Amino acid sequence: MSKKTLQKTLLFIVISVSLLALLSYAATRLSRIPAPPALLALALEWEPPSGSYKFFDSSEVQIAPPPDSVDTQPLPEQLQALAPQIAWRDGQSIDFAQFLKATHTNALLVLHRGALVFESYPRGSQRDTVFPSFSLAKSMLSDLVGVALNEGKIGSLDDPVSLYLPELPARFSKLRVYDLLHMRSGIHVDERYDSVFSRIAYMYITTDLRRFVRELDTVAYTPQQGFEYRSVDYLLLGMLLSAATGESLSHYLQHKIWQPMRAQYAASWSIDSDRNQVEKGFCCVNARAIDFARYGLLHLRNGKLGERQILPAQWMQKPEATGHADDHFDYGRGWWLPRLNGSGDARDYTAIGIHGQYVYIDPVSDTVIVKLSDHGAEQDEALTVAAFRSMVAALQKQAH
């Protein structure tokens, strides 16, 4: 091949690749999904789930500025070993280190009686490592709804959703705030995580969530007639809360929870895009494990930090079960309610996010367990709660 021919060939390749890249960018823009590099990185899982937040725009959640920030004190520490054996599969026990490895644990923190008794980052993270909450954010959003109700920003859980979101398609006119909070809307957006072409996957990556909402058109049942775990309900609930308060979700989180609870680190809430600025209310508060633990402690203290009431006390009680999720859990107000020996008399409850994220609350033993992981999409939730219960039992035994 002559030098001139080679130059022409290389020029043709460069032009072709450039045109393809331009077309790809145009196609993703028209489809309202991330640009090709981010889309490719997500599809090929170039980052583990715990790093996926890096590919999305976000809105900052700041810690308290001076002079309030000087009140941010480290949690008291009384570090100790946890139970060497953990309850696990088929009624058997496994070594504690095996449990952490088997469930791909990135961070495990335990607060007991107000003190940090255990903190571990088995896979190389550190205290200042940022982790995405995934659906832990639903529980936090639920608490923010409680704040808005207490402030009168939301009049009642019986208010029609259209009062706050008039742009919602008319076919959903019967929806109440209650229906979104308890996932009883009947809106049909499949909670399927096994396909990149599912509606839930598109909802997660779209750069225009308002358009996604305008195009909702399918119902699985009439509102109030049943329960189905559907993230779309919390997308709408987040948009409703923002409309009711006149603030972004990240700003409301910052001023109603993050700064009042004296979070140690700033956080963020993933949004659809910098252009549209809609938080993903169904997921994606990005923070440090230690601050998720502080958040759990608010629930143990009935919403108080010291003498200051941060969250409404009546909202801090174990949520009522309003949906039967599966054989192991009920669901209520953004929280998972594990059963005890097949009955509903357990007092513990937990926030759960995909890939193994937990903020577990046990009021009886005064314990919070935060576990952040890169585990499977849907696996071992009931086993993990059983493991937490065995940790709690060991802590109580040591205390006596």
From TrEMBL:
Molecular functions (GO terms): hydrolase activity
Matching InterPro entries: Beta-lactam-related (IPR001466), Beta-lactam/transpept-like (IPR012338), Diverse_Enzym_Activities (IPR050789)
Keyword Hydrolase: yes
Keywords of the record: Hydrolase
Coiled coil: none
SUPFAM superfamilies attached to this UniProt entry: beta-lactamase/transpeptidase-like
Domain Beta-lactamase-related: 104-378
PANTHER family: BETA-LACTAMASE-RELATED, BLL8153 PROTEIN
Protein name: Serine hydrolase
